[in-house]
Here is the input.
Amino acid sequence: MMIYPYGDTTNDGAMQLSFTLPLKASALAKEAAKSLVKKMGFEKTEVVSMQDLGGDFSFFVVYGHTTTGINTDDIQVVEAKFDHMDRVQVDEYIEEQIGRKLVVVGATIESDAHTVGLDAILNMKGYHGDYGLERYKNFEVYNMGSQVLCEDLIKKCKEVKADVVLVSQIVTQKNIHVKNLSKLMDLMEAEGLRHHIIAAVGGPRISHELALELGYDIGFGPGTIPSQVASYIATTKKERLENE
Amino acid sequence: MEKLKLRLKSEPVNRAKEISKEIVEDLMDLIRENTTTSIERTVLRLFGIIGADIDDTPYVNIIVKQLMKKGVLEMGASLYVLNACVHHDEEPEVIAKMVAEENLDLTEIPMGDYEKINALSQRLTQAAMDHIAKIKDERDKLLYETWSDPPRPYKYVIVATGNIHEDVVQAQAAARQGADIIAVIRSTAQSLLDYVPEGATTEGFGGTYATQENFRIMRKALDVVGEEQNRYIRLVNYASGLCMPEIAMMGAWEGLDFLLNDSMYGILFRDINMQRTIIDQYFSRLICAASHITINTGEDNYLTTSDAIEKAYAVTASQLINEAFALKAGMEPKYMGLGHAFEINPDIKDGLSYEIAHALLTRELFPEATLKYMPPTKHMTGDIFKGYAMNTMFNFVSVLTGQDIQLLGMLTEAIHTPFMQDRYLAVKNADYIFNNTFSLGKEFSIDDDSFISQRAHKVLEQAIELLEHTREVGLMQSIEEANFADIKRTQTGGKGLDGVIKKSPKYYNPFEGAFRRLLNLDDEVFEGGVH
Here is the structure.
């Protein structure tokens, strides 16, 4: 199916854009903004706002109609598939299908000092009314906190015989999160842990696709709630045990 | 600006302050009896030692490490460096190079003539104190005489490009757009470095390193815009961490105006050893107090890790402890940028009533403090339009309740470090709300039996409960019990305990005394003398 953005009429292709140009607010700058958007393939472009940002910068809000559409049949999505259960169901599932507690080790690694995402998933209190993994009967959770060296995380995984390693990466600039995550994966491979442990990564800039690319089993993006992570862990662990 | 009034009862307020004072007094022996590697490095920096060896290890680290290895750091680093200066008839920076590059062993130089050492110590100490005073006076003159202090709430924005030269472009643009205060976000994890990097940063992660050179570059850039705009633009950086006193010194030296400086942040949120932090925060606050640097405390962090309604009292308790520590370091209330945040889940019914209650509680508990109010971050989602609406409410509460420092919320919080236009939109939002609701506060009064008043008193009572327990068991034990931010830390755990050294009875540090005399702190001997 061919689709176009929707403004107020089917297939009108209407979009809003906002951006800054390194030019003083002026007739020239306004025309530059318009030309830029036209060059991007927009028609009927309209610069609705030009604001002087001081110095040699100005900020634009531009509307335009794109002539580019997209055929949804051509699109492939990499999406993690698992049944979403609630906490009680997950606990029961683990009890019945696995028969022991699953050990989860979580950390934000290397330079990342932000634990908001990790805590949202692991802490008793959870996130968005959904209890965290610590609250589950059948998870044994080790939350190592922030700025954990990959080496230390691996040591801990060995020590407690982790079933799952859960890594959160929030702050990222110049793709440092990719570097950190690759390092952990390399070390896990080198230590021969990779195949025993389910490796999950979460964060605002993490997609499932990126996670797979980096060698992880799953990536959780923004808005993930703990029971999703719990469901994934439980069902994946069962599959693994069956395949062993 | 006319703000709302809560009419907080005085009895619980006085009780809370008294308990906090006792909590802090209980730690003064620890502070008095110990020094740290970071304090000793600060002293050496004050003597004019800057620079690093070819491996980028700062000279001050090399010297302190040598003295530590020889087991004499308990005497204070100053004595050995001064003795070497007298012996070689050189300035401290030359001695530093000799230690770093020629393996000069400071402990092998025979202790020389005490009178000469004393005289040199006095000259160098006075020179440093004079420089700090000069920087302070110049800033105060620009701020209050040449131009005037901008109306409150001050508009505070951050830059975080990782490249100081790019930071300059963004900071100058933000100042031209109307920002009053610019903070340069530090490179991720700098708080855990046990040294301060040297030189200008062109590639940092998540921010730009706090270095003396970066401070200098940004101060100069803001002065240029200030001149053009006829106002003074304040500059902020971050001191909390393993190098708290050193960064305070560098801030004082280069004319910074605010420093993030919290007595417990490093312990709780960065797992820095608690003894180290408590000792370091004192010396760093002496420097801030002497330099008229406004400290900014980090209570907003309690609300990003815990629920903002449930744990509101932790913010209040921490503010009270931070205030008590600052008072002990001779700081005037107006230089206390006690922190709090607008972090209540936006889906909660009547959430704004809670926010107003909490903001008014902070305002009235600390009437003279320069309060720092932090924007929503935890519940920012990537929906920039909702985020912009939340920031509007945040600005509204700030002006209504009389906050002082408004860390402007970015609509792209949770997405990326701010684009230039994000800061512009934030400043325009604040300008609109601050102007549009300027006198609104005086149009309303709050009943004593209203939800807002009851809520504020309840949070204060809860905070007092925590403080009473903390007084009973001691602050360090209370942190061990995870009473703050639900985070458990131990007295001997965390990073940096190896940098805590028990002072010898002959310990010498001329600056401790110099700062304490300047700040009229009790005359009890802290610094020892050259014996």
Q: What stands out?
A: Chain B has 20 helices and eleven strands. The longest helix of chain B spans residues 114-146.
